[in-house]
């Protein structure tokens, strides 16, 4: 069944995007870590104004089942897209829906003339690593943030 994508509404969707961000942190790091919900909501509101195609809620039959956060940025002298969050609720995983998120993201990047994208993933998040590799992303390098992360990327 096809998923639909709509720009986030920082007020109406707040409970969803905050919970999904926390869930993603637990899956990656085993804990939510320090998290300021208001700061995050303000960031979402600003980013949806800057790049509305990149900050979307994912729905199936009107039910919110995920979200994507992505935006253009400079990296080593070139413009790439960066995916901050790909999220699907657990019951939607492993059924091909993740590919629809990837297809949406790559379509947005192409429409904006961007031919490369990156994301960061915890090297301990095996399900995410498996999915990203299956989608054709490759490890670019290891980076140290609050945790060790792998930067992965793909040319489209």
UniProtKB/TrEMBL annotation:
GO terms for molecular function: acyltransferase activity, transferring groups other than amino-acyl groups. Keywords: Acyltransferase, Transferase. SUPFAM superfamilies: Acyl-CoA N-acyltransferases (Nat). Residues 3-156 form the N-acetyltransferase domain. It comes from the Bacteria. The keyword Acyltransferase applies. InterPro entries: Acyl_CoA_acyltransferase, GNAT_dom, YpeA/RimI_acetyltransf. PROSITE patterns: GNAT. Pfam families: Acetyltransf_1. Gene3D superfamilies: 3.40.630.30. PANTHER family: ACETYLTRANSFERASE, N-ACETYLTRANSFERASE DOMAIN-CONTAINING PROTEIN. This is GNAT family N-acetyltransferase. It comes from Sulfobacillus benefaciens.
């Amino acid at each position: 069944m096809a998923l639909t994508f709509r720009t986030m509404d920082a007020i109406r969707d707040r409970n969803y995007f905050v919970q999904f961000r926390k869930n993603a942190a637990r899956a990656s790091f085993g804990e939510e870590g320090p998290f300021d919900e208001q700061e995050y909501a303000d960031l979402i509101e600003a980013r949806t104004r800057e790049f509305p195609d990149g900050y979307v809620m994912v729905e199936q039959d009107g039910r919110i089942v995920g979200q994507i956060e992505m935006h253009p940025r400079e990296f080593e002298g070139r413009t790439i897209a960066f995916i901050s969050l790909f999220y699907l609720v657990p019951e939607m995983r492993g059924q091909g829906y993740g590919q629809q998120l990837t297809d949406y993201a790559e379509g947005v990047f192409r429409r904006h003339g961007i031919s490369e994208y990156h994301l960061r993933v915890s090297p301990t998040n095996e399900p995410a690593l498996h999915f990203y590799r299956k989608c054709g992303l490759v490890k670019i390098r290891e980076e140290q943030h609050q945790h060790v992360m792998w930067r992965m990327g793909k040319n489209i």
